[in-house]
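Ticket #4471: complex job returned nothing on first submit. Input attached below:
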Amino acid sequence: MKKTFITLFVSILFCHSLYAQKSEITVDTSVSLGEISPFVYGQFIEYMGRCIDGGIYEEDTPLSDERGFRTDVLEKVKELNPPMLRFPGGTVIKTFHWEDGIGPKYERKPKKNLIWGGINTYRFGTCEFIEYCREIGCEPVLVINLSTGTPDEAANWVDYCNGTENTYYANLRRSHGYPEPFNVKYWALGNEEAAEPDAGRHQDPHKYVEDVWHFIKLMKLTDPSIKLIANGESQHTEWNKIILKGLDGAIDYISYHAYVGTDQGKPYSIFKKIQGTDNGLTNFANLIKENSPEKVQNWKKWYRFPHRTEPIKIAMDEWGIWEYQDPPYGTTNTYEWRHGLATACFLNTIHRHAGNIAMANWAQMVNILAPIMTSEQASVRQTVFFPLKEYRAHLLNESVSVNATSPLIEEGLQSLNVSAAIDREKMLLTLYIVNINPKEVKTAINFTNCKVDKLLETTILSASALNAKNTLKEPDKNVVTTTQASINKNVKEITLKGETVTICQFKLAELAK
Ligand code: AHR
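Support reply: We reran it on our side without changes. The output follows.
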């Protein structure tokens, strides 16, 4: 009886706070959170399940062009407009040999995909990948095989892609029909090499450092202008410290992978996990600062290639939502609108950490944990597609401080999740607001250290229900509505409908120096 009374009392208190609490968003344009790299809207494709074969690439179907690129998928990828694409893995890289995927298709070497099952056809290889990147106008990132590959093999890949001299591998590329170098600037030194159950050989960080140096030396001597991403491990502080100290000078970025999902019966747990990623990124950024000096010292000239010139930054080269649904490995996920809201919150996290993140890739682009799903006959945009697209479309170049005070959904979780970006030259400011609350929230917007001329436009993403989803059964049905309105007046208070993403773009009249 006593317990019931207490529960009732707590519920009344909670409901009171839900409805009575004042909502306020405060933007301070004088507090910069750093430049937002355009590369934070990147994507990732891997030889895993139907991401590549049957996803972006499929031969002998009227849905594909003469190169085998699925045009219905390409159209959707172009809408997402990723600035960067990472290939070919992921974990699959541990047994992936790039030379199996070049030259005439009949000479390619299909091999068992020892990591994820099925077959790596290698029919979408280096040249097809580069062509795909050129087609969608994005920067390629190649991941090298550290596990069953050799330093020589990695350096030869660099030469095949970037070589301009009269060398065997540059000539091989030319003979395949590509006279101009691909100029691949970003190279990742393996993938999740700390993971003990994977088919790697570096699970000891000291071993990784020692071995990876051989790869780095040969790759950098082949093309000193390339930028390198070392493997970090979000859960392994010791690993990160040893990697940072051991490879300092030679690497430009350290990777951080972040997947979130929902705990059974706790639909809001995913949002709390994203908040956890906020803390994880803060700790990771501090760890980088503590373990690698801003400027490289004591660089040995006999390395014969230059050291990095910028502080080491985070390459969040895999992030996304993994709900462990259908095979392979629970990565065929059908996303609800709740996941669309979570994606927008995650993007807000990435914006808030802009100063420390150089690149981020949603994992993966098609069929595996993906915004785009395909069957042999059709393709569909999942709910998570829409925030990815609209955030990218409203990108401004600098993140600034913004805080929200709003009703609690449950302990430790506010209704509103926000980020803000500014373009000081164009005098534009964008506010990205996610309202997780099923109810509408009316909120004041305070601007500090700037004066707003007017709210130019708003884009609102909403859906019929929190569990609404787009599926291949009805590929033409879209449960997500995108509403765009041109406002053109000064607005100091807005009402955010329940379970929506709102992107407001303001024109500024004044900006404090
Ligand atoms: O994206 C799926 C897998 O998740 C990747 O291959 C691996 O890097 C990560 O563990």
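The pocket of alpha-L-arabinofuranose is lined by residues 46, 89-91, 191-192, 318, 363-364 (CB under 6 Å). Closing as resolved unless it happens again.
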